[in-house]
Every structure is written in structure tokens, then in C-alpha cells.
Amino acid sequence: MAQDSVGLPSDFQFWMRKLSVWDLASTLETQQDTCRHLPRFQEFLRQLYEALKEMDSNAIIERFPTVGQLLAKTCRNPLILAYDESQKILIWCLCCLIKKDPQNSGESKFNSWTRGLLSHILSTFRFDIKEVDLFTQVLGYAPTDYYPGLLKNMVLSLVSELRENHLNGFNTQRRMAPERVRSLSRVCVPLVTLPDFEPLVEALLTYHGHEPQEVLWPEFCDAVNEAFLLKKISLPTSAILCLWLRHLPSLENTMLHLFEKLISSERNFLRRIECFMKDSSLPAAACHPAIFRVVDEMFRYALLETDGALEVLAAIQVFTRCFVEALEKEDKQLKFAFKTYFPYASPSLVMVLLQHPKDIPQGLWHQALKHISEMLKEVVEDQTHGSYGGPFESWFLFVHFGGWADMVAEQLMTSEAEAEAPEALLWLLAFSCSPGAGHQQRAQTMVEVKAVLSCLMKLLRSPTLSARDLQAAAGEGGEGAPRPPACQQLIRRLLLNFLLWAPGGHAIAQEVITLMAQTDAIMHEIIGFLDQTLYRWDHLCVEAPRSRKLARELLAELRGQA
């Protein structure tokens, strides 16, 4: 250790100069320079402590006459105090300076000054009682809970001052200066994860001044958002909403974090996606239209970039479900018109889609879907509705509401309202899978789906079924031009619904799915369909014990194979 302390005098002068520069300037460059040197400076503090603990007070002052200045400058630097074990080592160094039996007034004053530095550190940071035990006897403070109480009072005082700032409005005599608010947010950057500082972090986020520009330090917003995403801080939704409204990059990073979670696992099921979504606070915060519009735009771009990936579609539907639930919980009387959330959509169509299927008698679902189809078709194919955007905008609105979008094929298979498949539902099914198709291509898809559906309805009444019967009904293996991918997907959806609802479908389900799942992509699609169907049935309280049992069994087996 003696060897380590040989170079201390020269190191001492180097760090003294560094601390002076850091103390005088508070630019981004000096902060970056401080952060680069934090590991080396901590090692210097450790070596200094090893030297100080072997000397008495007189020897310390003789060898390091400016040690008090160096330690005082260190105490004033929040970045150093927040780094690793630096604050703890600094406390040890300060304890070495205190003389137990001061012989004159000068030594007594020096002890008092040193105690002041220690009190300053403790009033700024929270330490475990075990760490304080090292020097509490030297300080002479009796109650062990004094320092936590001091810290709590300091935080509460600042919180009260920030809130008074909001209440006093333009009363400038009692308002906290914007420069001080900005400085306070910068000091809090390394402290946001400390539990005792959560009230102060919340007060800063909800602070409302009258400045034309944002007063909070951007790095503070970044640090709070990162701590929130990593579950290192617990804040109410109101504070998170303020954070995202003040700092758009934080909201964008939250969305990117959500996308990473959705794709980090090989397969995320809707229940898990719902947990991710609610845990993110995005649906609740999206009750504010500005947040909703940003989130919705990012979903739109993700959908376009992934060419309509099933995972993104599922995430949009789960987000919308959670968002609508949050709206209902927030207030029975909406603060914002739905037009502000969906500005490109027909208001009447939005109101129809917002009706949850569970609020409509099951026997009327068929009619509700026909009405939705007619409204969508009018907007998509009637050029006079150009103000509501093109087909993509209408489709994008429709797929938000998965409760309706996912039940079209099921209603075609199970409804007994008409002997022949209604054109409205066929159109809606074709549009939902291929919004970009032209009128002629969509009509051709409807013809093919109708032919398959007619064959399946005949098989539904057949006393015996085989996998080959379904293969023939679907027109697979026959001659002729191959169907477009969207049409093939629709027919697979009809076949899967047939297996779940037909009395004899259960016996041949495994064989049919094996024949269908020729590729990993199709297997992935089938798993998604079964998961989505069970999720929807749970939310709609659909009573179909046998169909539920089969869907669960198939899903469990396919998960194991995927």
C-alpha cells in the first residue's frame, strides 16, 4: 500500500486541477469529461483513504495541506457522488480528518466544517444505516434515523416549492426560477433511481411553468424514462404522461422498447402481449390524443415496414382493446371527441366499431357485421368519401378492433340466418385480408371463398368426415392457377373455423392441420389463429366447451412442435 501512495502527491495535484475545472464550468463537455474520469478518480480516492487512515490529523495536514479543498470540491460534484462506491469512500476520507480531541478553536472549527460536509452528503443521498455506522459516533448525532429524516424533509421542501410554483402561476415573487428548475433536473440525473427521490422526480415531471421552451434537462427525461422501462422507478401514469408530452424521444424509445419485447421471444401470445401493453402504461397515457396519435403512427409504420406482420396486427388490436378500457375507466364522459383520436376515419364508422361485441346479444353479431361491412364498403368504393382517406386508412381503422375483425369467418361458418353466405360478410372477409386489392380482384376472391364455404356447409351436415373431404372442399391439389396468398389465407381460416365448430371436425383436426402446415410460416399463422380465437372467446365469454377444449389441445401441441 505504501508503494501505491508514492505517486499520490502528483496525482493529488492533477485531480485538484480537474475538480477546479469541473467546479467552475457546468457545460455538457465538462460533464462528459467527468464521466470519463469517474473510475480513475474513485481509485484515487481509495488510495487517498488508505494513506489517510494511517496518519493522524496533524500528519494529514502536513502532507496534504489542501486535502480539505479537494474533498469539499468532490462533495459538490453530484456525478462523482452518484458513481459506484465513490460517495462511501469520500465519507471514509472525511472521517479521517476529524480530530477526536481538538486542542484549540482552530481544530474545533475544522471538525465542525468537516461535519458540515458529511451532513451535506447525507442530506443529498440515502445510505444504508450500516454505512453510516462507521462515523455516526464521531459526529455525535444520537438518533440513527436523523439523516433519512433530513433527506426526506429536503425532498418534501423542494416538492412543495415546485407545487407552489404551479399554484402561484404568474406570481413571480413566489415562483421558482426556471434556471433553478433546470439546474435541479440536471442534478437529479444520477439520482432518479433512488426511492427517496421519487417524489421530487414526479414533481419535476408535473411542473408547469410559463416558459416558451422546455426547462427540464433532456438527459433528466432520458434517465427517468430508462429507469421506468427497466422497472427501477415507480411513477404514477400522470407523471409518465407528462414525461412523454414534454419529451417526444422518451415516448418513441418506449415504443421501440415495446417492439423489442414483442420480437425478443420466438412467440408471444396475446395474454402476454396484453401484460406487456398494460405494463408499459401506453394505453392509459394514450387517453391523451397527442400520445395516441404518436403511438398509432408508430404502429402504422411498423405495419407497413413488416408488410402486415401478424405480431404487429395482434399488438395493435391488444393496444386498442386496452386503450378503450382505459378510456372507460378514466371518465364516463369523454374529455376528447373520438374524432381527435381517429381524424382520418368516418365518425359514424368509428362509433359502430367502438361498440364491443360483448355488449351486443350474440344473435345480433351477424347483423352488426353486415352493417360494418356496408359502411366500410361505402367509404372504400364510393369516391365521394375521399376525405376519409383511401382503402388502407379504412382497413387500418378496422383492424384496430380485433373483436369484430376476427369473427367474420366464424360468423360465416356458424350463422344459420341465411342459407347462402351473405355478400356483405364475404366482402368484409376479402377486404380484411387484402385491402390493397382492386374491385375486380376482390370480387374474384369472394367467388372462390363462397364456393369453398358452400362445400364446407354441405360437409357440416355430413355424418362422416375425412381429411381428404376437407382438402377437396378447399380445392387443394386440383388443377388450375394457384390462388393468391391472401385468398389461400382466407380459406385456411375457414377450414380452421370448420374444424373447431363441426361435430366431426375434432376427430380429423390433427391430420388436417398437418396437411395444411406445409411451411413454418403457415404453422406460425395457425398458432396465431388459435391463440387469437381463444383470447377473443375469453373476452366475449363465448360458451363452447368442446371447441375451446380442441383449440387448447391443438395450440399446446403446435407450440411444442414450433
UniProtKB/TrEMBL annotation:
The protein's UniProt keywords, in alphabetical order, are: Cytoplasm, DNA damage, DNA repair, Nucleus
Intracellular or extracellular location(s): Nucleus
For this chain's UniProt record, which GO biological process terms are given? cellular response to oxidative stress; interstrand cross-link repair; nucleotide-excision repair
Pfam families recorded = Fanconi_C
Record's function text: DNA repair protein that may operate in a postreplication repair or a cell cycle checkpoint function. May be implicated in interstrand DNA cross-link repair and in the maintenance of normal chromosome stability. Upon IFNG induction, may facilitate STAT1 activation by recruiting STAT1 to IFNGR1.
> How is this protein organized at the quaternary level?
Belongs to the multisubunit FA complex composed of FANCA, FANCB, FANCC, FANCE, FANCF, FANCG, FANCL/PHF9 and FANCM. This complex may also include HSP70.
Q: What is this protein called?
A: Fanconi anemia group C protein homolog
| Species this chain originates from | Physeter macrocephalus (Sperm whale)
